[in-house]
Amino acid sequence: MNYKFFLIFFLVFCFLGWPIAPAIAYEGEVVLTTEEHIKELQEQIARLKALIADIVLYKEISAQSYLVVDVDSNTVISQKNITQSHSIASITKLMNALVAVENTSGNESIILQEEMLKPQGYSPSLFLKLTVTVKNLLKASLIQSTNDAAQALTYVVGNDKFIRLMNGRARQLGMDDTYFYDAHGLDPSNRSTVVDITKLLTYLYNNHPDILEITKENDFQLPDPTGKLLTFKNLNAFSRVAEFIGGKTGYLPQARQSFAGLFDLNGKTVAIVLLYSNNRQTDTQKLIDWVKNNE
């Protein structure tokens, strides 16, 4: 392992054009003091260490593409294949929530019909003829990622129109490589890039923090007129992490695992988005640790 480290070290030295010999002063040239030379060398060493750490991170992350951004300054911290398009699975539900919030009333009620309950991955807590508010359907969709809840939300304006609104909102947010064909993410044709998903997260953070707040909730209970309490569990392991601001996970065989979330790290609001991962939890934790140790 050590020889690999030193090989990378040597190659980066060559790449940076590291000053091997002491500088020679010519007429009119400003001569650096010893302290200034030392400071310059220390800065170059720090940059070199960060570059090596980023190279190692790139190899360790299983996701085909990822993006880590300081949202407050819009600065890229780390990245990999950011223009690659992938299926996004249930990350779709973040755009579903945005369109629902902007086009419906939270207190509006929906009576669940058969066509709303057809999507695979339904919740037994939602059943035929149950009356549910838009607000509670949003919670069911974002907390437990229930596909029937996301589908039911579309019927306030009509399913086809709702999907058109999702695609239209994507264009408005500059998400030019994002396409939606359903409202919940079961269709692998729902595709995007880590750049576009980061734009969506940033917009939600600045304009609809209430949506992100829902994604942090656990053990949401939906009242049922029959007297039962119908419970929804959060499937996102990071919802229990103190630094987590909000976000969404996704999974499909064609999409593997995906994650899009915001964290408060070292006093910065950091967006972490990864697509087509073998293990989103491990990948995300590595990116969190890297930011904590290198930023």
Description:
- It is built from nine helices and eleven strands.
- With 295 residues, it is an alpha+beta fold.
- The protein has two domains: 2-60, no CATH class; 65-294, DD-peptidase/beta-lactamase superfamily (Beta-lactamase, 3-Layer(aba) Sandwich), CATH 3.40.710.10.
- It has a five-stranded antiparallel sheet, with helices on both faces. The chain has a two-stranded antiparallel ribbon with strand order 3-6.
- The longest helix has 27 residues, at 34-60.
- Belongs to the peptidase S11 family.
Key words describing this protein structure:
41% helix; 11 strands; alpha+beta; 2 domains; peptidoglycan synthesis; single chain; 9 helices; two-stranded antiparallel sheet; 295 residues; Beta-lactamase; five-stranded antiparallel β-sheet; Peptidase_S11_N
